[in-house]
Specification:
The chain is an alpha/beta fold and 224 residues long. The chain has seven helices and eight strands, in the order βββααααβαβαβββα.
């Protein structure tokens, strides 16, 4: 039996019909419950954003306190104490000798947009804007906002949405970095950043140690 569908889900036709066994109604731990009563293991941690499990009491309690103490405080041109405390905690975990600032975002796609903007702004202020190209990996997924959509290396109908990819390049991750090195030799003076996931999100492909080693070495040689 199919369900009437008033919801238009991402990346599917608007009139897609879903049966009960595909409609999630709850989740706990690492399993998702569906409308037909079945449960399945979630092997992707939601959309890669539930690493502590569904319904984790510590997370639920923290969200409950936040909604009661300050249901919404903006970071638009002004700080607030909750964000300041969270930023300090993140820096302490990440290594204060390497990081000094945190930018919070509303989603992974928005965070990648911000990262691309920061990289381009950095080089614009440092060298007059000669470095604007952002390099991603084929098969990488970074979101579907216009900047992150351009950076995503999967075919996500970018041409249908007129996503501007003129300042984005994609290279293979399966050749231990050879194509990346060739690109940097050709266009390195125009590259603002290279964005990679240690495990490519759309297919769970782990990057090889050889690729990562080559990436870091290339970064050191082209950073100036």
């Amino acid at each position: 039996m199919s369900l009437p569908n008033a919801l238009w889900t991402s990346m599917l036709p608007a009139d897609e019909i879903f049966t009960h066994d595909r409609v999630a109604v709850g989740a706990a731990g690492n399993r998702i419950e569906f409308a037909d009563g079945s449960t399945r293991l979630c092997a992707t941690s939601g959309l890669w954003n539930v690493p502590l499990g569904f319904g984790n009491p510590a997370v639920a309690d923290a969200v409950d306190r936040a909604t009661r103490d300050a249901s919404y405080l903006s970071l638009f041109r002004a700080p607030h104490r909750y964000a300041q405390d969270a930023a300090e905690a993140l820096i302490e975990l990440a290594d204060p000798s390497r990081y000094r600032r945190v930018i919070f975002s509303t989603s992974g796609g928005a965070a990648n947009d911000a990262a691309m903007k920061l990289a381009r702004q950095y080089w614009s202020q440092k060298s007059g804007g000669s470095r604007s190209i952002v390099v991603g990996l084929r098969g990488g997924y970074h979101g579907t906002m216009y900047g992150s959509h351009a950076l995503s290396g999967d075919d996500l109908l970018q041409s249908a949405y007129f996503v501007d990819r003129r300042a984005v390049r994609h290279v293979s991750h399966s050749d231990d970095g050879e194509e990346l090195e060739t690109l940097l030799k050709r266009e390195g003076s125009r590259v603002a950043s290279v964005v990679v996931e240690p495990v490519l999100g759309s297919g769970a492909y782990a990057l090889s140690e050889a690729f990562i080693d080559r990436l870091l070495a290339l970064g050191r040689s082209t950073a100036s």
